[in-house]
Amino acid sequence: MARHPAVRWILWEQTPQGFLARCEVCGAVVHGLEPDGVDAFASAHSAHQSASPRHFGLGDVVAAGTKALGIQPCAPCEARRRVLNQAFPKIWRR
Fold first, then answer.
1. Nearest Cα to Cα of residue 45 among 5, 19, 8, 20
2. Taking all residues of the chain, what is their mean pLDDT, rounded to a whole number?
3. Which ranges of the chain would DSSP assign to H, the alpha helix?
C-alpha cells in the first residue's frame, strides 16, 4: 500500500475492483473507489491530523510511545489522542 501524498495517514492501493483506501487513525476502509474517491476519502479524514502539519501533537507523541511499548490502540485511545493534539498541537517537529 502507498501513502496518500497530501494526507500521510491514508494508505491506498489499486485492486481489480477499484481503489482501496484505509485511514490508519480511525481504521476506516473503503473498497472500489475511483481515483477521485481516494482524494475525497483523504480530505474527509484529514481532520485526524494535529493542528499543525509540521509538528506532532502531544497525542501523536503519546501514541507513538505506547505503540513502541506494544500497547495496541483502542477507540478511547484515539479519542484521547485527538483531544491531546487539540490541546497541545506543537510538541515535536515532524
1. 8
2. 83
3. 35-44, 58-68, 75-87
How many CA atoms lie within 13 Å of 46's alpha carbon, on the beta-carbon side?
13
Element (H, E) at 19: strand 18-23
The confidence score (pLDDT) of residue 91 equals 79
- 28's grid cell: 476506516
Q: Is beta strand 2-3 parallel, antiparallel or unpaired with respect to 29-33?
A: unpaired
What residues are paired with 12 via a beta bridge?
2, 21
Alpha carbon 41 to its chain centroid, in Å, reads 11
Mean pLDDT along residues 17-45: 85
